[in-house]
Amino acid sequence: xxxxxxxxxxxxGGQAVLEGVMMKNQEKYAVAVRRPNGEIVxxxxxYQGLLxxxxxxxxxxxxxxxxxxxxxxxxxxxxxxxxxxxDVEEGQEEGTPSADSGKGGEKLKxxxxxxxxxxxxxxxxxxxxxxxxxxxxxxxxNTSLLAIIEGLIRIVVFILYVWGISAMKDIKRLYQYxxxxxxxxxxxxxxxxxxxxxxxxSSRLHKRCGTSFIFFVLFISIVLFFFIRVExxxxxxxxxxxxxxxxxxxxxxxxxxxxRGDNLFVRIISAPGMLVQRMTTKEPDRAMAEVAIAAVExxxxxxxxxxxNFGYQEETAPDESGEQSREP
Length: 328
What we know:
By secondary structure, the chain is α+β, with helices and mostly antiparallel strands. The protein has eleven helices and four strands, in the order E-E-E-E-H-H-H-H-H-H-H-H-H-H-H. The protein has helices spanning 62-87, 103-140, 143-165, 169-189, 196-201, 210-227, 233-242, 244-260, 264-280, 286-299, 302-310; strands spanning 13-17, 20-25, 28-34, 40-46.
């Protein structure tokens, strides 16, 4: 039986992009993308965020709202960059697109895609569950139970959505890179040298994942809407949309707690999101792990981190050649 290792918070996070991985550490972020010819293209930039240098960045529940917005903005920027890299023809590869390439048309396209995504998300995860629950409520006549049913419908819609898109070939590869991202962070936070071998042995599930954040949002919305009610149907829909920043702020604090702790309570509240991650992450291949490692090393000195937090250097790290750990 594999032994469970101590986890130490690293502070790095990231996301999967098209044929690559973005990793962020404080204000620095790197996007590593694998070109069709096998070359790994790396873009290193700074992103300060909306609350950079602002006292609001230290206020619980408020900071989560702005961090959520920052994640969306940076995520779209990195996805746009990875798409540009993928579009470069092999005969034109001597030039590497920057994260700000194609400022005119590409920025407009990115903005339109972002708006369309937000509208789709609101319609699919807010309006649709409310409408279906209202149909049930016309026979139920119990507002407390109806609020719970609406929340459960929202969770079911989310799970079906994730399961449905996972059948797409491109999304499956995206999920594999998502797994590679998590494996790298788990490898570091469990005190293992960041090698392909150690990354491939590490878990593809992580408590600070965006999937877990969304699940917290869905759960918190059930609790919040259970106590906050209005009679007018239009006002109920608008209220749900208006309270999304509040729900995001609360969910961020819970995710932050989960990412920094490893006790029984943290494992219990993280369990549902970790289960959903089994759909949003897939086992990567070694080439994908190499891309994720390149992104990590561009923004994070993991060798220094091993010395400071685990007391050993890469050369003196414990031999784990026989360990096949899959702990989250």
